[in-house]
């Protein structure tokens, strides 16, 4: 195996999917606190206020808020040397726009970060992981209002300054490229789906406002990158892109061209801006042709150029196919699907498993950006079964991860500068796409059901000891 000796092995989480404690010690409501269980598109499965008798998964999640010492100890037992987590903006600034932070919220993250370091892990912190404060949504319509740029910078400065000597690795926005699609209007950009000024006459999307909001968010990200380097020049700050790798379904030229257009718009645009500091020509043309090119305020171009990231981090779960044939078979995916690849098998949730696609993606990204890469989400969601003796046999997860780790190894051997791997959901948590607990990713099983019932007891799955050995041997024992 060719993994470098300082390779970062660990797991990844998001505050809204596993923390719970949604109203503890001054925390304000965040977008996920108004989302319910169900299979409807994420951005529309949303209630305007907390309703009595309705179950909101993020309110309790798996209650990491009260179990963090126990959980972090288990991560340490698996030999993690990095742990990806997010900070909930509304735990620090409850409405998003206060002048002074909530000290109790900061104190909670003090304790979590100290516990991670005590157990041998360096934190990798995401500043915004689909969890904007509801105050930002209701009072500003998210990043469609430029004032939110400075509010986000204030929040980022607060936590980066607080943890400047304890945290080296940072991500500004999770899967920011979803902001280019209507999936991201609420999750990434905080645009209120119930606001008739944004969505008049029952409209489901507002492309012009969305790309303006995305531009504002990219300006905010760039400002934070520049500020972060001033706070601590040793910070490594990354973008985070949902890389749904795609293939043309056939060699038909129309399929090849359509796939290229999808890849540029969805997978490459935001990453290009965050790594290079300029809008690429293909996107400038696309936006101007549709008369939706965003307004650049004075200094925006310079800000984007000065705030480029140090590393490119991304999620990878599956691949899809693109075709002009509307009747081609469909497949599922990470908040969005595509056309099915006849050469691949699918998971229980319809996501096609493609480890070779990860190697292809790593080679493609290295060729395009020539910078350190990190896979910060990858894993298999499955309906694991807890046996009477407390065991969970998840050989299917071991197989999935083994094949993807082999793909990473092969890419490193071919010259890819891959510095780390944080698999998604090292402990079972709430699904971002559906709000379910039944779709489990973890090495650790949590006794919690879709309706919020369960003991919250933790159990080690078979994959727990397998991943422990993988890290102990730096990827040699698979």
Task: Describe this protein's structure.
The protein is globular and about 60 Å long. It contains 15 helices and 14 strands. Helix 3 runs parallel beside helix 5 and helix 9 crosses helix 12 (300-306). The chain is 37% helix and 13% strand. The longest helix is centred in the middle third of the chain and has 25 residues, at 207-231. The protein has a single domain (8-472), classed as Alpha-Beta Barrel (TIM Barrel), CATH 3.20.20. The strands form four sheets. Strands 1-2-3-4-5-7-11-12 form an eight-stranded parallel barrel, surrounded by five helices. A two-stranded parallel sheet has the order 6-8. The chain has a two-stranded antiparallel ribbon with strand order 9-10. With 478 residues, it is of the alpha/beta class. It has helices at 15-18, 57-60, 64-77, 89-92, 103-118, 134-140, 147-162, 184-187, 207-231, 253-276, 281-289, 300-306, 355-369, 395-413, 462-472, and strands at 8-12, 82-86, 122-128, 169-173, 236-242, 245-248, 311-315, 319-322, 330-331, 338-339, 373-377, 418-424, 444-446, 458-460.
- Poorly predicted ranges (pLDDT <50, ≥5 residues)? 39-44
User: Helicity, in percent?
Assistant: 25-40%
Instruction: Give the ordered list of helices and strands.
Output: EHHHEHHEHHEHHEEHHHEEEEHEHEEEH
Count of the domains = 1
Let me know the largest β-sheet. Answer: 8 strands, parallel, barrel
- Amino- and carboxy-terminal Cα gap: 10 Å
CATH topology: TIM Barrel
Protein name: 6-phospho-beta-glucosidase
GO molecular function, one term: beta-glucosidase activity
Organism: Pseudolactococcus reticulitermitis
Family: Belongs to the glycosyl hydrolase 1 family.
